[in-house]
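Folded chain entry
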Amino acid sequence: MKALSILLSFALLVALWGCGSKAEQATTQAADEAVVPVKLAPVSRVVRAEPVVASGLISSAQEARLSFKVGGIINQMLVEEGQSVRKGQLLATLDLTEINAQVSQAQLANEKAERDLNRVKSLYADTAATLEQFQNATTGTNVAKQNLAIAQFNRSYAQIHSTVDGTVTRKVANAGEFISPGASVYLISSNRQSDWVVRVGVSDKDWARLRLGNRASVSLEAYPGQTFTGTVSELAQAADPVNKLYEVEVRINPGATRLAPGLFAKVTLVPAQSRTYTLVPVEAIVEGNGKEGFVYVLADDRKHVRKTPIQIGFLDGNKVLLSSGLASVKDVVTAGSAYLTEASSVVVKNE
């Protein structure tokens, strides 16, 4: 009986020792799992001119909205949309019945005024007319001459002539319609290769970094895979009151490529003004949202991490250029950053 008790006590001790070993192993394994292996990448500084990306529509720098100076019935429309025209070419005319009558009235009034002046002049020489009558007759003659000049001028602008060598991009009216003075009849765009431009809107910060002559690259949806060069030719001096953006005109060099007004273009502007950026690998960025994001950096004990906010400038391949943040940081966490929190313990396993 005594031997049986001794055996039972020994078995109990063995069982307790085994349970203690398993608990110790579980604790060690849990501690190992709480440590996250990470890799570090160096932080560098670069000087770049951050590009400005915007979009707009192709148009001609030489565009003309042509109209009649006086209103009336359109007599002839001599060209159609899409047709090429030459500078000075006759495009449209008004019915001149009413306008010619106005010219005739002015001409007759001028002839009468001249007769009256000659008669008063003779009477004044014979002292039969006063100086005031002579002066009034002289003024009346001058007024009649100016009215005749106005009528003749209006008749000369009862026709529309092209002001540029170009293409009719829009025809607004047709023959037989009544047209008001100054109402657009034709829209003409120059078709010279040196006249193609794209106008884009940029923010005030981007506008401040741009200068006339800055380089630009232009890509068109109509010609995928093809890039055109350009230069900044105009910078607006006031923001658009609707969208609050500043208009920038980029003159394009299309080469032998055929362009047309209205083509959609994406423009990348390269400012001459440079700035210093912090450069980190793209895999270091966590919780990125637009221009904002975070990275993890090692704490002072190198066993924990610290979540640090950053401002993203732009992407350059597999690198991210930061506009602010990480001023005094030498390394950032890359591999393993997706599994980290600020409570994580880490071990650096850089190869």
In short: Residues 66-188 form a domain with the OB fold (Dihydrolipoamide Acetyltransferase, E2P) fold (CATH 2.40.50.100). The chain has three domains: 35-48+275-348, 53-61+193-270, 66-188. The chain is about 25% helix and 40% strand.
